[in-house]
């Protein structure tokens, strides 16, 4: 439950979620649940060229099992949390 | 198309006898239905309009035009979904990425660009990626007001179908064993048996080599007495 507790503290903050297929999405963390499913608002895709169909993303839900890592900026210091459970 | 669809995690959907609703598993029910959704697979493969059914464990799309066309995917296969503006029409649609569980370069179909068959072969890619089908879908509703409930339905479906094994929680998760053998071993241990001599029993001769007269027998199959194994 350690990750879940930590992620809950990031609700409302801007984070970048990296999926296992290298897709990276930046957005405001709307909510997270115990399975680390993540809902984001105000989204922009980090690597747009690779995923051209993801334009003007309004709302997004990412399944916890496909999240590789999650980054956030805290007071100009970048903190990166890597989920080590399933491996990269 | 069917083979490529299965490669990215979409299974062909069977229909119930009425032809309009999906064949469901035992105990499975339709929780929601969304009509007039156009499906596009892999960015370019338009499947036409159809009806989407949400059940406890999966989503099923049945073509409204072709009675033999339909796809189903379990919620665990859906890696992410989002409301996006379709670049062609400018209208909002539901965008989904699938994860069929393959490791390596991430989701099947990703990691390599969606190349034409010839190009893929020239590059010497794995045959499973020859089609170059991106593991992404778009559902475009004729009625835009469906998008919000559609997005919600997928969220709830994912929440209803979490992955269960986590390394921290289950010790020995994924450990494969034969239940019968394990139970037999446990029973033997409980009875205090396990010593070879006890297992051999009183008549050790039954493990002796066969007599040469027994020609019809498969002598090779008889267990040879050994020093304990």
Task: Characterize the structure shown.
The complex is a heterodimer of chains A (88) and B (229). Helix content of chain A is 8%, strand content 47%. With 88 residues, chain A is mostly beta strands. Chain A has one domain: SH3 type barrels (Roll), CATH 2.30.30. Chain A has a six-stranded antiparallel β-sheet. Chain B has one domain: Pleckstrin-homology domain (PH domain)/Phosphotyrosine-binding domain (PTB) (PH-domain like), CATH 2.30.29. Chain B contains five helices and eight strands, in the order αβββββββαβααα. Chain B has helices spanning 2-7, 117-122, 147-160, 179-190, 196-200, and strands at residues 11-12, 30-41, 45-55, 58-63, 70-74, 78-85, 92-98, 136-141. In chain B, strands 1-5-4-3-2-8-7-6 form an eight-stranded antiparallel β-sheet. In chain B, β4 and β5 form a beta hairpin. The model of chain B is unreliable at 104-131, 169-175 and 214-219 (pLDDT under 50). The A-B interface holds A 19-23, 33, 35, 37, 39, 43, 51-66, 85 and B 43, 76, 78-85, 87, 92, 95, 97, 99, 105-107, 110-111, 135-136, 138, 151, 154-155, 158-159, 162-163, 166-168.
Concise structural overview:
The complex is a heterodimer of chains A (88) and B (229). Chain A is mostly beta strands. Helices cover 8% and strands 47% of the residues of chain A.
Write the layout of secondary structure elements.
The complex is a heterodimer of chains A (88) and B (229).
Chain A: H1 2-8, E1 14-19, E2 24-32, E3 38-45, E4 59-62, E5 67-74, E6 77-82
Antiparallel strand pairs in A: 1-2, 1-5, 2-3, 3-4, 5-6
Chain B: H1 2-7, E1 11-12, E2 30-41, E3 45-55, E4 58-63, E5 70-74, E6 78-85, E7 92-98, H2 117-122, E8 136-141, H3 147-160, H4 179-190, H5 196-200
Antiparallel strand pairs in B: 1-5, 2-3, 2-8, 3-4, 4-5, 6-7, 7-8
